[in-house]
Write a structure and sequence with these properties.
The chain is built from five helices and 31 strands. The protein has 399 residues and is mainly beta.
């Protein structure tokens, strides 16, 4: 049997090391590992004296997966302006103010960006660096922290987690589900953004029995968006922008029984309502005292009054088997149409322009003689209307 010997003992193999360099930073630069370049410029050395020519300049680290973990670089800012050190993917690692020394060292090299940690040297007082405070929803911009909303487009079902805090999800598919994490797993202030830019509905579905806006799920039609946030128990939306195309919806509610029935949860803020069930007494549907329209179908059975009203205001009685368009003005529920049909309807609008049969016939072109003949009770009366003497015999009598 052949035996293989690990010559290097399993330790990391680092690129060729250059101990020191001095860099006059006049523009943004990207460093290279010494073994990956044939030039002597912009090398990642163990110690780097950097003199930035102006504020706002940056140094980008080499790809982390081109070296081993434990690689270190010490930056010494010998200029009058602050400069920034960034990972290979452009994310800030540390901002280095004038006269300070910071060492960055690599703890994860599984990808080009890697995980870099910054440690200040020679500080007489504690100083917080914005880069070390950045996280989900927060990004370091120079020496300051700023809000961050990373955008993720997706077109297949996705389950969110702790790592998705402050992420904006943009749906681009035909129909799917965005599963929200259990609030106990992500904390009482976890949030994300959801926008439907697809061609079908994307459903926000909390894990388990958790509710969102009082319902088990919440469907986002194309063009709709909202911020989704948890209080640690359930989910709520902020600024749920509904598309006008899909704003009209329908719900059917069984309201069998008698007395007051108050709309709650997902029954609220709908447009078309069909109320069903057998009434055992007068039934009153209580709606919020907020401006809203209600297209109501009373499909209940039972010879009892059925009324739509606010808790403290007046309402409208809707007869069994009938439909009404109502609205709440913020205080009372009122009928949207209280006017009748204006009569007479003019001939030009398809009517007769009259309120009597005789006037209608005249308006429609009948002459006085023709009208008299049309309304004659018998043949003699018709002849009389025509001014002709009767003659001969006709069926049913003689003239």
């Amino acid at each position: 049997m052949t035996t293989y010997t690990d010559t290097f003992g399993g330790a990391n193999i680092y690129p060729s090391e250059v101990d020191y360099s001095s860099t006059a930073l006049a523009a943004d630069i990207t460093l290279s590992w010494p073994e990956e370049t044939s030039t002597s410029q912009n090398l990642a050395t163990k110690i780097m004296d950097v003199t930035p020519a102006s504020a706002g300049l940056s140094i980008t680290l080499p790809p982390a997966n081109g070296t081993g973990t434990g690689q270190t670089i010490l930056f010494n800012n010998r200029g009058a302006s602050t400069f920034t050190v960034k990972r290979a993917d452009g994310v800030q690692v540390v901002t280095i103010a004038s006269g300070t020394l910071w060492q960055v060292y690599l703890t994860n090299n599984s990808n080009a960006a890697g995980t870099w940690v910054a440690l200040q040297y020679g500080a007489s007082t504690s100083q917080v660096n914005a880069s070390s405070l950045a996280g989900n929803g927060i990004v370091a911009t120079g020496t300051l922290l700023a809000q961050s909303v990373p955008v993720t487009q997706f077109n297949s079902n996705y389950t969110t987690g702790t790592q998705d805090r402050a992420t904006m999800f943009v749906w681009t598919g035909a129909g799917g589900t965005l599963t929200l994490p259990a609030p106990t797993a992500v904390g009482g202030n976890w949030f994300c953004y959801l926008r439907n830019s697809g061609s079908g509905a994307i459903v926000a579905d909390p894990a388990g029995t958790i509710l969102i806006d009082g319902g088990a799920t919440l469907s986002f039609q194309p063009g709709e968006s909202a911020i989704i946030v948890t209080d640690g128990a359930n989910y709520f939306t902020i600024g749920f922008g509904q598309s006008a195309t899909f704003a009209f919806d329908f719900t059917s509610i069984n309201v069998a029984g008698s007395g007051n029935y108050t709309l709650t949860g997902t029954e609220l803020n709908r447009i078309a309502y069909s109320f069903t069930g057998t009434l055992t007494g007068n039934r009153t549907i209580i709606v919020p005292a907020t401006v809203q329209q209600y297209w109501v179908t009373n499909a209940t059975t039972g010879a009892y009054n059925f009324t739509i009203k606010t808790s403290a205001g007046s309402g409208v009685l809707v007869a069994s088997g009938s439909r009404s368009i109502l609205y709440c003005d913020g205080t009372n529920v009122v009928n949207a149409d209280t006017g009748g049909l204006a009569v007479p309807i003019q001939v030009s609008d398809g009517g007769t322009g009259a309120t009597t049969a005789g006037a209608a016939r005249i308006n429609l072109g009948a002459s006085a003689v023709g009208d008299a003949v049309f309304t004659a009770v018998d043949g003699n009366a018709a002849y009389a209307a025509l001014g002709v003497a009767p003659s001969g015999v006709v069926v049913g009598g003689t003239f």
